[in-house]
Design a protein that fits this description.
alpha/beta; binds ligand LHQ; four-stranded mixed β-sheet; 2 domains; 2-enoyl-CoA Hydratase, Chain A, domain 1; Lyase 2-enoyl-coa Hydratase, Chain  A, domain 2; six-stranded mixed β-sheet; single chain
Length: about 260
């Protein structure tokens, strides 16, 4: 059982709720650990085919709990010991991860959302690179992902000025994938998660790996990586099922293997 998050699996979707609503779901070291642990469990649980991270209450996550910060804290070590492992767990996860951003995502809470594969935003969501307001630099992989999503100039602007990005603007600049009306939030997030959970899960894991490989490899090495990935995908049940469904003109029923 967890103290700072709530975790449940419903019909192939693992729901991970950040659960410190009175602090706008600010991170503590325990919360970093519990998130990493829940992600590790969902990655190895065959029943799970999609993961949703969202916040309890009115916020997604307000970043590091500032009431726990003091002069004895070595921030570099805190990042190495707590935030880095959590963000790496997201990067290494073979299942698709959706950040369902229900409210403000600030500081490392913004970084958490950036590390996920999809960002769905409610009309009440906003993103805030708050670090500069407390004399810090964006951390937890923030600039790595932000610059890829919105480009160099916008990434610098958001980080240096620390201005809030509304949900509408976030979709406009490519920071978020979809804007969802607050009235339909639960139903539409669930429908999106169920849809993703019904896709060929192994292929999605391989797509994620190929995206990472594309960032690091030469073109020739990337083509080789891609060939290896495609070989694995071609041996899955879901590949066969997709082919059969196409030939038989019916909807495919993927099982995630
Ligand atoms: C909070 C927090 C919070 C504690 C709201 N902590 N209580 C990594 C490595 C090591 C160290 C340093 O940091 C990092 C990474 C980081 O994340 S640094 C950046 C940390 N985050 C921030 O600087 C954001 C701080 N919060 C805010 O700017 C605002 O609260 C936002 C814009 C998120 C929301 O504003 P409002 O909607 O106006 O809400 P509020 O400010 O009134 O907050 C509501 C309550 O939540 C309030 O408590 P209270 O007892 O007065 O009701 C806040 O104190 C508490 N809270 N964020 N990060």
């Amino acid at each position: 059982m967890y103290d700072t998050i709530r975790y449940e699996v419903i019909e192939g979707v693992a729901w991970l709720y950040l659960n410190r609503p009175e602090k706008l779901n600010a991170f503590t070291a325990l919360m970093n650990k519990e998130i990493a642990n829940a992600l590790k469990i969902s990655n190895s649980d065959d029943e799970v085919r999609c993961i949703v991270i969202t916040g309890e209450g009115r916020a997604f996550c307000s970043g590091q709990d500032l009431s726990e910060v003091d002069e004895t804290m070595d921030f570099g070590q805190v990042l190495r010991d707590h935030y880095g492992p959590m963000i790496k767990q997201i990067r290494q996860c073979e299942k698709p991860i959706i950040a369902a951003v229900n409210g403000v995502a600030a500081g490392a809470g913004f970084s958490l959302a950036l590390a996920c594969d999809f960002r769905l935003v409610s009309e009440k969501a906003s993103f805030l690179n708050a670090f500069v307001h407390v004399g810090l630099i964006p951390d937890s992989g923030n600039l790595f992902y932000l610059s890829k999503l919105v480009g160099h100039a916008k990434s610098l602007e958001l980080s240096i000025l620390g201005e809030k990005v509304t949900a509408v603007k976030a979709v406009e600049i490519g920071l978020a994938n979809r804007l969802i009306s607050i009235n339909a939030w639960n139903e539409e997030v669930t429908a999106f998660a169920n849809r993703v959970a019904g896709l060929p899960t192994r292929a999605i894991g391989l797509i994620k790996q190929a995206m990472h490989a594309a960032e690091n490899l030469s073109f020739e090495d990337y083509l080789e990586f891609e060939a290896g990935g495609q070989r694995i995908a071609s041996l899955t049940y879901d590949h066969r099922e997709g082919l059969d469904a196409f030939i038989q003109k019916r909807k495919a029923n993927y099982i995630g293997r």
